[in-house]
Amino acid sequence: MTAQPADRVTIEYDPNSTVRIVVDTPMKRFYQEQVEYLNAGDFEGLVNNHYHEDAVLLSAERVVRGHDALKRHYAKYTGLMAFLEVVSTDKWIESETTFAFEATARTQWGISRVHDAFLLRDGKIAVHFTGGIPLLR
Amino acid sequence: MHIDLTVNGQARQADVEPRLLLVDLLRDEFGLTGAKVGCDTGQCGSCVVLVDGVSVKSCAMLAVQADGANITTVEGLSEAGRLTPLQAAFQTMHAVQCGFCTPGMIVSLSDLLKRNPDPTEEEVRLWLEGHLCRCTGYENVVRAVEAARQIGKSPAHILADTPLKQLYERQVAYLEASDFDALVENNYHEDAILTSFDGIYTGRDALREYFRNRAQSQGQIDFLSTEKYVESDGAFYYEALVRSAEGVRKIYNGCVVRDGKITHHFEGAK
Ligand code: FES
Ligand code: FES
Questions:
Q1: pTM of the model
Q2: Mean pLDDT of chain A
Q3: pLDDT by residue, tens only, chain A of 137 residues
Q4: For residue A99, what is the nearest residue in chain B, using CA coordinates?
Q5: What are chain A's domains?
Q6: Does ligand 1 have an atom closer than 6 angstroms to the CB of B46?
Q7: Are B256 and B263 in contact (CB under 8 A)?
C-alpha cells in the first residue's frame, strides 16, 4: 500500500504486531508492511511497492540508488545481519511526508539497534537514511 | 641500563641493554608496533617517531639515548580516538596502499606541519626525502598534506570538495557561531521540514525557534569531528561527534537538498 496522510486509521494494539507499536496511522502501517516484507525475505515486494525507481538509500557506509541496487542491498544486508524480528520500536516520529524511528531487532548474532528516516513522495520512499546504534549509549 | 621516558603521554621505565634500538624498545617491550622496521639502516623512514617533538628515525637511535625523552609514536597522535587532520587526509586522499610506510610518513609530516603549517608542494616533496614507499604512492601523500591543511581549517573537519560538503560545512559554522538567522535563511528552503524525535518543525520560523531553544538548553555546540559522511545527488548523511553542555555525543543527520538548500532534515543521536 502507499501511505496517504489524510486517511487516518485507528487500529487497536495487536500483541503480535511485527513492529510492537499501535499501528494507528498510514505511516505506521507502511512501516509495519516494510517489516513484514523483511520478515518474509520479500525484497522484490519491499522495493517494488515501497520505493520509487530513483529512490536513494544513504548510510554511513554506502549510497544505494534504484530498484535493482536496493534489492541487492536488502538481500545482502539482511543476510549479513541475519535479521529475525523487530523486538521493539523505541522512537517514532512522523509528518505528512516523513517518518523516522529507532528500533531494536533480534538477529542470529544477537540484539541490534537501528535508526531509519524516510522522505516519501506520493506515498513511496524517495530518500532513506539508515544506520546502526551502539547497544550501550 | 635503567631508563625513564614518556611514551604517548605515559611515564614508562625499562631495563635495557645499551645496544637496544629505540624502535625495538617501542615495538617489542612496549607493544607499540605502529613504527615499522623497513630497513634497519636509516634509509626508509618507516620507523619515524617524535622525540621531544622532533621526527627521528628510531632505528638510528639507541633506547638509552631516549632516557628522559618524550616520545610520540603514531599511536599517540590522535586525541580521544579522533583522527588528526593529517590522518583524516591520508584516508580521504587514499594516500595509503599497503600501509607499511604510512605511520612513519604521518609522524614525519606531522613534524613538518608543526614547523610550517603552509608548506609548498616542493617543501613537502623535499621533506619526504628519507621516506621510501615500496608501493610508490607518493603523489597521493603529497595531495594529502594539502588536504590536511584544508581539513585543519574546516569547521566540520572534512575536505569540503563538493557543493554538499560545503553546505554541511556552512551548517556547522553557523551552528557553532549560534547564528541561527543566517543558518535558516541561507541553508533551508522556506518550507523546509526538520524531523527529529523532539518533534517536526516546518518552515523557517519554526526552524529558527527550534535551533534557538536547543541552544538554550544545550548551550554552545562544538563539532569535534565528522566520523562519517556520504552523499548522493541531492542528499547527504553524516555522523559527527559534538560537544555541548550535555557532554560529548554522537549525532546523525540526513539532509535532502534542492537548489543548494535543505528541503528535509532528519536528525538524531546515537
Ligand atoms: S627502519 Fe628505520 S629508516 Fe628504515
Ligand atoms: S603504502 Fe606500501 S610502502 Fe608505502
A1: 0.83
A2: 88
A3: 555 555 665 656 777 788 888 888 999 999 999 999 988 889 999 999 999 999 999 999 999 999 999 999 998 877 766 778 888 999 999 999 999 999 999 888 889 899 999 999 999 999 999 999 887 65
A4: B195
A5: 11-136 (3.10.450.50)
A6: yes
A7: yes
Q: Kindly give the distance from the C-alpha atom of residue B144 to the centroid of ligand 2, in angstroms, as a whole number.
A: 14
Which DSSP letter does residue B263 get? E
pLDDT tens readout for residues B131-172:
999 998 899 999 999 999 999 999 999 999 999 999 999 999
What are the φ and ψ backbone dihedral angles of B261, each rounded to 5 degrees? -130, 155
**What distance in angstroms lies between residue B38's CA and the mean position of ligand 2's atoms?**
11
Chain A touched by B258 (CB under 8 Å): no
Ligand nearest to the CA of B144: 2
Q: Which domains does chain B carry? A: 2-76 (3.10.20.30), 85-153 (1.10.150.120), 160-269 (3.10.450.50)
Beta strand pairing call for A124-133 and A51-59: parallel
B63 phi and psi angles, rounded to 5 deg: -60, -40
- Which residues of chain B form beta strands (DSSP E)? 2-7, 10-15, 48-51, 54-57, 70-72, 188-196, 199-202, 222-232, 235-244, 247-258, 261-269
On the question of pLDDT at B64 being above 60, the answer is yes
Q: Which of A58, A94, A100 sits opposite B232 (nearest CB)?
A: A58
Nearest chain B CA: its distance from A77 CA (Å): 18
Contact (Cβ atoms closer than 8 angstroms) between residue A56 and residue B232: yes
Distance from CA of B48 to the nearest CA of A (A): 32
The arithmetic mean of pLDDT across residues B120-135, rounded, is 96
Contact B200 A63 (CB under 8 A): no
